[in-house]
Design brief:
With 234 residues, the chain is α/β, with parallel strands linked by helices. The chain has helices at 48-57, 71-74, 77-84, 141-151, 169-192, 198-205, 214-230, and strands at 3-5, 14-18, 31-35, 39-41, 63-65, 87-88, 95-99, 108-114, 117-123, 158-160. It has one domain: 4-Layer Sandwich (Metallo-beta-lactamase, Chain A).
């Protein structure tokens, strides 16, 4: 069932709900964020009980936003519209939408500031724990590095698409950027060792990956190889 969660880092105008869709790619489940003006960010799966929990958790739903169009974030949109009459629309004027491609080409984050409190809704660009897949062929490593550079300018709580609230979005962005660069170095080393296919690189660089996530590691490797090709390194 949907969980209603709390954190001392949350502004009092944000409610945190977690959809009942845990898994290797969704961690504990998709985080749905409800603002006190009736804005929902990432309704999550098309799970009627979850959508009803969103409706019951706060004011009437007026507006729906999403950080990217992966099914675990948007499958519930049509049903939520049918239940509430809400519309997919632009953010309220106290939320700034940032284009943050990389995980996917359509990924965005939302910076919200009100009553002296500021947070960033990071979607899957920055997860609450671990690193996000670069979802080749739509995802792009170069774009992702640029997006992390942008988010490193926001030393405020990060409210991710999956996992716990981040105390410092900027610190998380810096860590992820360093991690991505380290992975690129490992891919270069694998190629020098004789790896000739994405599968070969996965076997070397992601040898300890959960078998359930091997496909995601291969997506990221393909994106890494494409990025290195743009640098004329392949």
């Amino acid at each position: 069932m949907t969980a209603r969660l709390t954190s001392e880092l949350l502004p009092d105008w944000v409610t945190w709900l977690r959809a009942p869709n845990p898994g290797p790619m969704t961690l504990d489940g998709t985080n749905t964020w409800l603002l006190d003006d009736g804005t929902v960010i990432d309704p999550g799966p098309d799970d009627l009980a979850h959508l009803e929990a969103i409706i019951e958790a706060g004011p009437p739903i007026r507006r729906i936003l999403f950080t990217h169009a992966h099914p675990d974030h948007v499958d519930g949109v049509i049903t939520l519209i049918a239940l509430t009459g809400a519309e997919v629309g632009d953010p309220p004027d106290w939320i700034t939408q940032l284009g943050t491609p990389g995980h996917t080409s359509d990924s965005v984050c939302f910076v919200a500031e009100r009553d002296g409190q500021r947070v960033v809704f990071t979607g899957d660009t920055i997860l609450g724990r671990g690193s996000s897949v670069v979802a080749w062929p739509d995802g792009d490593v170069g774009a992702y590095l640029n997006s992390l550079d942008m988010l490193s300018g926001y030393p405020v709580p990060g409210l991710p698409g999956h996992g716990p609230v981040l105390p410092d979005c900027a610190a998380a962005a810096d860590w992820l950027r360093a991690h991505r660069l380290e992975r690129l170095d490992q891919v270069r080393a694998a190629l020098k060792q004789g790896a000739s296919t994405p599968e070969d690189v996965v076997n070397i660089v992601y040898a300890d990956v959960d078998p359930n996530l091997r496909f995601a590691a291969e997506w990221t490797v393909r994106a890494q190889l494409a990025y290195l090709a743009t640098l004329s390194e392949l």
